[in-house]
Amino acid sequence: MTSGMDDGDSNDKVAHLVVGLFLCAFGLSLLGLTVVRIRRLMRSASDASVLRRFLAAHVPERSPAVLKTASISIGGASLFGMTWTMLGARFVDRDLHPDYTVFHYVTHLAALAPYLFVGWTGWLEYKRCLPAESLRAALAVALWAEALLWAEHARSKASPVGARLHLDLGILMGLTAATTTASVVVGGGDPDRSPTAPFLLYVATPLGLVWQGAWFLTIAVHLHGGSEIPTSGHAVALFVLEGLGVLVLGQLVAVYLVREWRRQRPEERRGLV
Question: Which residue has the higher pLDDT, 254 or 3?
Answer without folding.
Answer: 254
